[in-house]
Write a structure and sequence with these properties.
MetI-like fold; globular; mainly alpha
Length: 312
């Protein structure tokens, strides 16, 4: 007992917590990192919150640049926009454009990735040429397709049709949404090809050789070995591309201007048209908020889908 009491008396006292720190047991943590990051975080929040707050306020006003003054009208901008047939058309066009481009990029991106993954001479140069369209600006690519390829008089496609005795096809008058989809898909196929090619290069070659020794043909090999390996990369491609395809704008502005009529008007172009062509800032603000809500719903759904795919 005497030795125990002596050991207790001689034991060093617990270290006092330093000033400015608080841990999980009640001790204080250093506030230096918080003070260093506070200005950037505050600036970022202001950069996001101030425009959002102004958009919400403008959406509650009758605010037209051609009229004098502003007046509070509550939710009337939302009521008018939600009952406008142009919004329904824009949502349908947005959905068709996104789904069509996603299908084209996944299918052709996978085919091109399988092709350029094969041994060949000059494979590095071929891969560079395949990926190059992704680095072309959307406005530039839209102008090239409109004036050099799809022009019904002087375009390359019209010249090829003439060589085979076929009538020229006016893409932007007869199939405008398809024409815009082709242009956007041409830009995003290289991105899908790059992601899927990287995934193919990480595929275990011993697994492929074992399947070939078992007598698996090309179709069976793709269905049983390659396709399951590409499931997660395809999900990532769909997630990233969807976020960008929901905001396609430059291609429509340069080629069709949303027409003929509203045939190629998607949600971003409808907001642009309402704000800068009709000068209706209130209605455009309401449309912008509707677009933000829809984009967040799609993002949450896709993120959960990707999370389930990665957990498998």
């Amino acid at each position: 007992m005497d030795r125990t009491a002596a050991a207790v008396r001689e034991a060093p006292p617990f270290a006092e917590p330093r000033a400015g720190m608080r841990g999980s047991t009640g001790q204080r943590r250093p506030i230096g990192p918080v003070l260093c990051t506070a200005p950037s975080v505050t600036l970022l929040l202001l950069w996001m919150i101030v425009p959002l707050g102004m958009t919400i306020w403008f959406s509650l006003l009758r605010y037209n640049l051609m009229d004098e003054g502003r007046s509070f009208i509550g939710a009337m901008n939302y009521v008018y926009l939600l009952t406008d047939p142009a919004l329904t058309t824009a949502l349908i066009n947005t959905l068709v454009l996104v789904l069509g481009v996603l299908a084209a990029t996944v299918v052709f991106g996978m085919l091109i990735a399988l092709l350029v993954n094969q041994p060949m001479h000059g494979r590095a140069g071929v891969r560079l040429l395949v990926i190059a369209p992704f680095f072309v600006m959307p406005t530039v690519s839209a102008l090239i397709w409109k004036n050099m390829l799809m022009n019904p008089v002087s375009g390359l496609i019209a010249w090829l049709c003439h060589q085979f005795g076929l009538p020229a096809f006016d893409w932007f008058a007869q199939a405008p949404l398809l024409a815009v989809g082709i242009i956007v898909a041409w830009q995003w196929i290289p991105f899908a090809t790059l992601i899927l090619l990287t995934a193919l290069q990480s595929l275990d070659q011993e697994q492929i050789e074992a399947a070939q020794l078992d007598g698996a043909g090309a179709v069976t090999l793709f269905r049983r070995v390659v396709a399951p390996h590409l499931a997660r990369p395809v999900t990532i491609v769909i997630l990233i591309e969807t976020m960008f395809l929901l905001s396609v704008f430059a291609e429509i502005l340069v080629t069709t201007g949303g027409g003929p009529g509203n045939d190629t008007t998607n949600l971003p172009y409808l907001i642009y048209k309402t704000a800068l062509l009709d000068y209706d800032i209130g209605g455009a603000s309401a449309g912008g908020l509707i677009a933000v809500v829809l984009a967040n719903i799609v993002a949450i759904f896709l993120v959960r889908t990707v999370a389930r795919s990665l957990d498998q």
